[in-house]
Amino acid sequence: MTEAAVKQPGSAAPAEPKIPVTYTAVYSVFFWIGLFSFGGGLMPWIQREIVIKRGWMRDEDFLPGVAMAQILPGVNSTNMAVYVGRHLLGVSGAAAAIIGILTGPFVIMLVAAYSYKAILGVPALHAAMAGVAAAAIGMLLRMGVLAVGTTGKGVLPIVVMISVFLAIGVMKWPLVPVVLVAVPLSVLIAWPWGRKSGGDVDA
């Protein structure tokens, strides 16, 4: 039984996973995510594979991991792989997820190191990378809107999200001061909602 399948007091039992959770399945999912990812933007893809397609986690369990992966040191996608793997199958699940997401890029980087100059000479490469970046931005925006919708707190999360975007993306304020203000404010907004929901937090 996975941690995600344990019923917490005051919460409804999660739906049965659409695909069984095994070490092989966890490794395979993160292997393909790592193999076909370009330039980041993996959070929406991980969410689609883990939450929507396979039903291994709920958004309520997944989205806190996104926040942790963004705040903690290291690459966001690898942080998220550890979080998801640990949630599903414990420490060994985290190991399977992190090895899976790093296997493909490791091999690709070895190949790219030997063919770097030839790759840069491909005329369509820059246009392709720009298209991938645009798609990643769109996926991140979708996940952000979804995250705001799951809080059930009306317009306040939207105000926080827009404020952070304006502060960092438009006004170019330093990231650390903005985070130090936005995080406590977000916690204060979400706290009453979390208590009303029965404290549904995995041990």
Q: Please, how many helices?
A: 8
Tell me the radius of gyration. 19 Å
Q: Compute the number of strand runs.
A: 0
Q: Give me the strand/helix succession.
A: HHHHHHHH
Question: What is the typical, i.e. mean, pLDDT?
Answer: 78
Structural class: mainly alpha
Share of helical residues = over 70%
Question: Biggest sheet: strands, sense, closure?
Answer: none
Beta-strand percentage range: under 5%
Low-confidence stretches: 1-13, 199-203
Kindly describe this structure.
The protein is mainly α. Helix content is 71%, strand content 0%. It has a domain of 123 residues. It is built from eight helices and no strands. It is globular, with a radius of gyration of 19 Å.
Structure at a glance:
The chain has a domain at 3-125. Helices cover 71% and strands 0% of the residues.
